[in-house]
Specification:
Order of helices and strands: HHHHH
InterPro entries: MEIOC
Helix content: over 70%
GO cellular component, one term: cytoplasm
Number of helices: 5
Structural class: mainly alpha
Region (Disordered): 89-129
Pfam families: MEIOC (PF15189)
Biased composition (Basic and acidic residues): 114-129
Shape: rod-shaped
Number of strands: 0
Largest sheet: none
Distance between the termini: 54 Å
Length: 129
């Protein structure tokens, strides 16, 4: 997206991607710990506690990963919106044809449809008793 824009994206987007990669590494490490400890039980009485501890650590890591995924998807969507708006504003044509496939152009192509939609939304709703 930085290449398409010709300028760097907002600083929060690479930071979000770095945090997402870190969450992936933490989840992988917790899973490896769980597998290792399940395959090599240390003591008979302590194995249940260790297994439960490993599973709870893995659950926490997966929860953090899920939060990270949502934030990353949002950041990338914002970067895409800024990139496509920037390309449309400056009238740049790209190899992928972003200008011709934009939602804004499809919506502005038929002004009669927009007018009829506006009329429908401008009428106040009446509540009958």
């Amino acid at each position: 997206m930085e290449r398409l824009r010709g300028t760097p994206v907002h600083e929060n987007i690479p930071k979000t991607l770095e945090r997402h990669l870190e969450a992936i590494h933490v989840t992988q490490a917790r899973r490896k710990d769980e597998i290792h400890n399940a395959a090599n039980p240390q003591r008979q009485g302590a194995s249940y506690y260790n297994n439960e501890k490993d599973v709870l650590a893995l659950v926490a890591a997966i929860k953090g990963l899920a939060v990270s995924i949502r934030k990353t998807r949002t950041a990338l969507w914002c970067a895409l919106q800024m990139t496509t708006n920037n390309l449309l504003k400056h009238g740049s044509e790209t190899e992928g044809g972003l200008k011709g496939n934009s939602t804004q152009e499809k919506n502005s192509a038929d002004p009669e449809d927009q007018g009829s939609k506006k009329e429908k939304h401008e009428k106040p709703m009446q509540i009958s008793e």
